Amino acid sequence: MEKRPVIIDCDTGTDDAIALVAALNCDALDVRAITCVSGNVDLCYTAPNTLNLCRMLGFDVKVAQGSPKPICRDLNDIRLVGNEDEGTISTHGQTGMGNVTLPQCGGDFYEKNAVETIYEEALACGGKLELIAVGPMTNVALALLCHPDLKDLIAHIWFMGGAAYGGNTTAVAEFNILCDPEAAHLVMQSGIDMTMVGLDVTEKAAVPDAACDEIRAIGTKDATVVADILDFMRMRRDEYGGEDTLMHDALAVAAACVPGVVKTSRYFVDTECAGTYTFGHTFVAKDDRFGKFTPNCNVAEEVDMDIFLGWLRSCIQNSKKRA
């Protein structure tokens, strides 16, 4: 089976790290590069988290640093909108990796920044490159702004973000989109084919406790770091009433790999950038009561948890091939 070339754009916190472990071990994907952005925590944490994780597990994939801030907003102001200074710390820990400490790899980031790395790989892949964006879409938007021809070189964008209904940071906004709504708007209206894996499905994608224990039993470095993160998430859930072991980002990777793991419908999707109470909201036009819209995005609406958990376990099981 020919592997599909992808770049993963992420703000590596806890569930991003699990998504990366799964993607790097997935038989379907050729991870050409990983680009880092501020989001769950600042870039000074997300980029080293990504580099250290990859090198600890023995992957020499390119890791490129991206934007430390949204296109035209202050990230700290955005975090305050939903009290996210406290929320992201409680969800991801001070440095993004919960209570998991990664060894310092001492390696180097890729010589090019995220924007130029995305463009370089898009050219090299001749229109076959896919992007999996599991953080704010700042890097992707900047790449499109700097290289207008990029929109014709990306085969598909899979992104974790948004929701057809509600939000998790404000009443109407999901965190990744809220962090840089202008970037999300630009990407959504770029004309690139895309799939949105939003809260409507990711909030159903919790790893059961028994599955957490099964993952640890695999016994590799990859399995251990995933299990340690899951244990942190379980501890926050049990002791502080925090979020469950939700695999927001890993589900977006799975959607890119496994037919049937999510059920999608095609709608017009855009991001609200101006509303006092609604900026960061993803508008999903599910009917024509509010106007006629041309669908531009596959929107995930249901998840098959048996398929997802089977895929996640199989990816981590693949790490035994390198042990």
Automatic annotation (TrEMBL):
Its EC number is 3.2.-.-. Pfam families: IU_nuc_hydro. GO terms for molecular function: purine nucleosidase activity; uridine nucleosidase activity. Keywords: Glycosidase, Hydrolase. One of its GO terms (biological process) is purine nucleoside catabolic process. One of its GO terms (cellular component) is cytosol. It is an enzyme of class 3 (hydrolase). SUPFAM superfamilies: Nucleoside hydrolase (SSF53590). Residues 6-308 form the Inosine/uridine-preferring nucleoside hydrolase domain. The keyword Nucleus does not apply. The keyword Cell cycle does not apply. PANTHER family: INOSINE-URIDINE PREFERRING NUCLEOSIDE HYDROLASE (PTHR12304), URIDINE NUCLEOSIDASE (PTHR12304:SF4). This is Pyrimidine-specific ribonucleoside hydrolase rihA. It comes from uncultured Anaerotruncus sp.
